[in-house]
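Example for tutorial group B:
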């Protein structure tokens, strides 16, 4: 085996052992460990910020985009929010052991579907160091061991956060191997994780979750021999219907695009009904707020013209494409052709139009009269999130505790035989 394969084989074998312990830990033991981890993060704030300053300096020198730098940047408020997120996970309902349903067969055999941990989860992510804490907390609470492989741009931040998390977990009896950080930035380690299906006799990863750009996700999907929970582009739309309240529409559009441009819930395309009384008022608000606007036919001749590629672009920056559409039908058609099945919103007072939009737009999250920036596990009451899944199987939308479990059938008999 290569050095990377040997490393990942060792990590997965140790993770499998830890997963067996985690699977049977009582809820209060997991919660106590996570609260200790949150306290450790707070105590380690100076070390975490110093590590992040090193990463930020390197990333700035390397010419990372403003959006990437925003994802990477930590300050006292973000460290506090990270710790609060870990503590919040400790207070969530434990899905492990929950009975999904129960049936009694005619012969008296009782069958239950019961939630159980997935086992060993690999997280491959870029830029966002908070994922180190979020993913570890969610995995542990759901009874899973986790192997974390962050991007090279956040290596020092990830190491500091991981060290604090593990110190808190271990102090409360959780195995140190419950949350492991891949110690190298060698890209070969990613390849080794993607092929860690147990076929070489070493421990296996049961699920890979990629969090990053299109290149990372494409590589994971192309190379993985391990099941993947994918998060594709956030090409998100806000459709302003002709019935929309103009003030509400303006507030939602500005927030959806500009609250944080580098998050996956940011609006990238604004669709405006031809029946809306003043489309340029929305565009002018965006421009005044510092957004570059690229417009489709029928809109201002003084603004840059959108090209075909714009409708399929996740800018992750203060850039938006804007198109006029023919009512809710036009909006649904546009999203079907160009959307990424992530998050799409309608602003309307017409309930019939909104109901059609919510029913027919095939995205993981659809919203009525609310900003797309609510596409976040914390805002959904899930505590932290491990990512937003845009596929159709296993989990969809913000993936938190329940999304990190599977189930098994448990039968209770009184001596039944098939005969």
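The residue assignment follows.
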């Amino acid at each position: 085996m290569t050095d990377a394969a040997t490393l990942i084989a060792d990590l997965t074998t140790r993770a499998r052992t830890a997963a067996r312990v985690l699977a049977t830990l009582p809820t209060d033991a997991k919660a106590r460990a996570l609260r200790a981890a949150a306290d450790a993060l707070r105590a380690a704030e100076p070390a975490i910020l110093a590590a992040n300053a090193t990463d930020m300096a390197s990333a700035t020198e390397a010419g990372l985009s403003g959006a990437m730098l925003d994802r990477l940047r930590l300050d006292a408020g973000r460290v506090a929010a990270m710790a609060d997120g870990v503590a919040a996970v400790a207070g969530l309902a434990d899905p492990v052991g929950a009975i999904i349903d129960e049936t009694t067969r005619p012969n008296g055999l009782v069958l239950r579907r019961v939630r159980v941990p997935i086992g060993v989860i690999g997280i491959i992510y870029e830029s966002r160091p908070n994922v180190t804490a979020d993913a570890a907390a969610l995995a542990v609470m759901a009874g899973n061991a986790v192997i974390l492989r962050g991007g090279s741009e956040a290596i020092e931040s990830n190491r500091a956060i991981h060290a604090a998390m593990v110190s808190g977990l271990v102090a409360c009896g959780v195995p140190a191997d419950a949350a492991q950080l891949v110690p190298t930035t060698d890209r070969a380690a990613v390849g080794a994780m993607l092929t860690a299906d147990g076929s070489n006799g070493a421990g296996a990863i049961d699920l890979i979750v990629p969090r990053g750009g299109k290149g990372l996700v494409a590589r994971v999907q192309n190379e993985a021999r391990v099941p993947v929970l994918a998060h594709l582009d956030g090409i998100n739309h806000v459709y302003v219907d002709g019935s929309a309240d103009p003030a509400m529409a303006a507030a939602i559009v500005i927030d959806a695009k500009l609250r944080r441009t580098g998050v996956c819930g940011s609006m990238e395309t604004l669709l405006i009904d031809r029946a809306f009384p003043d489309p340029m008022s929305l565009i002018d608000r965006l421009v005044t707020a510092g957004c570059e606007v690229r417009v489709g036919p029928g809109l201002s001749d003084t603004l840059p013209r959108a090209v075909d590629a714009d409708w399929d672009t996740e800018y992750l920056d203060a850039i938006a494409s804007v198109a006029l559409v023919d009512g809710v039908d036009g909006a649904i058609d546009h999203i079907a052709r160009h959307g990424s099945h992530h998050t799409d919103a309608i602003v309307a007072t017409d309930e019939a139009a909104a109901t059609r939009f919510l029913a027919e737009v095939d995205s993981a999250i659809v919203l009525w009269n609310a900003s797309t920036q609510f596409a976040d596990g914390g805002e959904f009451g899930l505590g932290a999130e491990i990512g937003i899944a845009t596929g159709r199987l296993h989990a969809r939308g913000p993936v938190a505790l329940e999304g990190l479990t599977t189930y098994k059938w448990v039968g209770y008999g009184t001596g039944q035989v098939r005969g």
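The domain at 3-229+391-412 is CATH 3.40.605.10 (Aldehyde Dehydrogenase; Chain A, domain 1). Compare this with the pattern of hydrophobic and polar residues in the output above.
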